[in-house]
Design goal:
- By secondary structure, the protein is an alpha+beta fold.
- 50% of the residues lie in helices and 28% in strands.
- The chain is built from seven helices and seven strands.
- It has helices spanning 2-16, 61-72, 74-88, 93-107, 124-141, 177-188, 191-205, and strands at residues 20-28, 32-40, 45-49, 109-120, 143-145, 151-158, 164-175.
- Strand 1 and strand 2 form a beta hairpin.
- It is extended, with a radius of gyration of 25 Å.
- The two termini are 46 Å apart.
Length: 206
Amino acid sequence: MLTFIGAVLTLTIIILAVPVNLVYALRKDDVWRGRLFVYWMFGLVRVSVRPGRRKAPRPSKRRRKRREMIVSGAKGAVRRRHDVLAILRTRGLLRALIRLLRDLLRSLRPRRLRVELVIGLEDPADTGRLAGVLAPLRLLLGKRSLGTGSNVSIDVTPDFSGPRLQGYSCASVRFVPLELIAIVIGFLFSVPVFRAVRLMMRQSHA
């Protein structure tokens, strides 16, 4: 039995140690179009996500009831806001949250970034000023490597014929699920989080 549990845990760790690649593509012609791709297990698992169009909300009795609940629960919302602020003031919690965000961002490894934009304003003079502001950025990040195998390509072209915004952008980011889980577990079992949990329990019993 212990051998089976150990084998399952080992297999789970190996699977979670396989990197995940996130790739997004965004295009602007007449409308915005975008898609997100997720690749895992060396391409064996592939997921494609395309944001759907939002439907216009329909007026209903449920919306009126919701407004009444919002008005009636305003005092409770103020109290909850004070409770949240009190929790955030827990000694060391804000620093732990900042460390969590920093470690999560560091665990994301960009592989590629490509941006191609055509921008034009109503006044050609304003387009010229915008081109002057963007010129140093094009020289700095025109085509370069970040030194970690990731490439950056940014090309912004001014259009003096009139208002225009068209372009294409894509990027890929890699992360290891096991690393993210370890970061989150380290945060959840930190001393500031335990203090915040105790404070939340006292507030719930108050």
